[in-house]
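Our preliminary data section would be incomplete without showing what the modeling component actually yields. Below, a chain of 115 amino acids is followed by its predicted structure, encoded as tokens that our downstream tools consume directly.
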Amino acid sequence: MSDAGGRMKDQLRQDLRSAHEQGNDFEIGVLRTLIAALDNAEAPPLDEEAARRHSTHRDQPSETVRLRLEEADVTRVLLLDVQEREAAAEVLESAGRAEHAEVLRRQSNLVKRYL
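Predicted structure:
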């Protein structure tokens, strides 16, 4: 089993460091969002009992094994992000918010670099 998610997050974190060094707030925001999306995709599903334990014992630390993402999983996460940004851009465009729609399209193009 590969760890494509870990490799992609390593690349995103490296690019995030570069964006920080360059003071590129635009890229920083998008890269943080992508790292969080991959982290969320690695979270194992909670069954009912685990969810109950988690919600009632918040003060007790626990270790949870993360899922390993395959290339297809990473691609799915990134494509979903692109689709959501482009759909939101269309809505904003139709609402007369062209400047905001353009920002989302630029963000989408940044995400596409990783596909």
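The helical segments are 4-22, 25-42, 48-56, 71-94, 98-112. The chain has a mean pLDDT of 89. Preliminary results of this kind motivate Aim 1 of the renewal.
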